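Researcher: Please predict.
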Amino acid sequence: MALRSFIEVHPESHFPIQNLPYGVFKHKGSSSTPRPAVAIGDYVLDLSEVALAGLFDGPIRDSFLQPNLNKFIALGRPAWKQARSTLQKLLSSTECALRDNENLRTKALLPMSEVEMLLPIAIGDYTDFFSSMHHAKNCGTIFRGPQNPIPANWFHLPIAYHGRASSVVISGTDIVRPRGQGHPAANSPPSFGPSQKLDFELEMAAVVGPGNELGKPVDVDKAADHIFGLVLMNDWSARDIQAWEYVPLGPFLGKSFGTTVSPWIVTLDALEPFASDAPKQNPHPLPYLAEKISKIYDIPLEVRIRPAGQEDSCVVTRSNFNHLYWTLTQQLAHHTINGCNLRPGDLFGTGTISGPEQDSYGCLLELTWNGQKPLSISGTERKFLEDGDEVIISGCSKGDGYNVGFGTCTGKVLPSPGC
């Protein structure tokens, strides 16, 4: 018999009892303390109220009395499983502890329309990988030509760069168009001004749970125990700034001005029904990256753009998490192989997730082939994002009679200061 909640959940909801993603909220329009929660249908369940009611034990109880999820995710997989089991029981149609306790229900179950979602974790460090072969091939072809688009090292290690954690923001936060230097024309000095090639990047990001000690790498076959869950991510990119600055040390100002994440962290346990064997890698990875069980997840992804001044949005790409070449666990194992210590709440992005077909490319750089082929969106053309454009990313796995979704990850472009 399928698990059902006593709370009515619409069949198309991203947040049935099979999901229960974690987030942090505060009461809308108030200065109340942020509180951990899970999403169920159109409601948030305030975990601090559930904890104060004595329905969690020990460290789990204390972790839900914090303003973010760091203390909870640091507890590790046994605690995550225990909390998930407890919550699914409390919210089930056959359990009376919450269902029949009107006082607790009133305090703990709040309509999503009445709350403001916040960053669910305190992010100490943020790393962005480059794990989609289709994206790597397209970018290489655009900038270096089709003869040898993917560098030889790409097939041997998950390439990444360190991003800026301070500019990771929650969905719904406006993004100010960045200013910076661009390629010089002929013998002129570099150009300077607002980016003319502002882009989105369709990504997902893993949230690190328990970290590792400095100098002690994480075994690739144990890496899943260090990953709490996934969020949607838009790693906004200023392509013109990036193109001028990235040689020889990589992205800097072209990336660090803003990265948007969705508010709900979907756990790997909730995604387990959508796991499958990852594609075979060629050449075979080095031993420290060779997994006994190599998993990928079937998570359909979609990007919509609402052009400035328009009410309707238009789908510009449909992709899937399963297009990644390097797995989450390989990314984490590689991140720590030199002894780098990860900490609870650290974030690492997958890199742009592009599929093999043009309508599955994960950014405007690819979709418009660096502006050479403008994209038609709701009766207007776009080479790159314009001021007032809104980007809306969503992701949802389809189960047998239920969904496990992430909600949306949104952001609107504001003009550069003084423009």
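Model: The chain has a mean pLDDT of 96.
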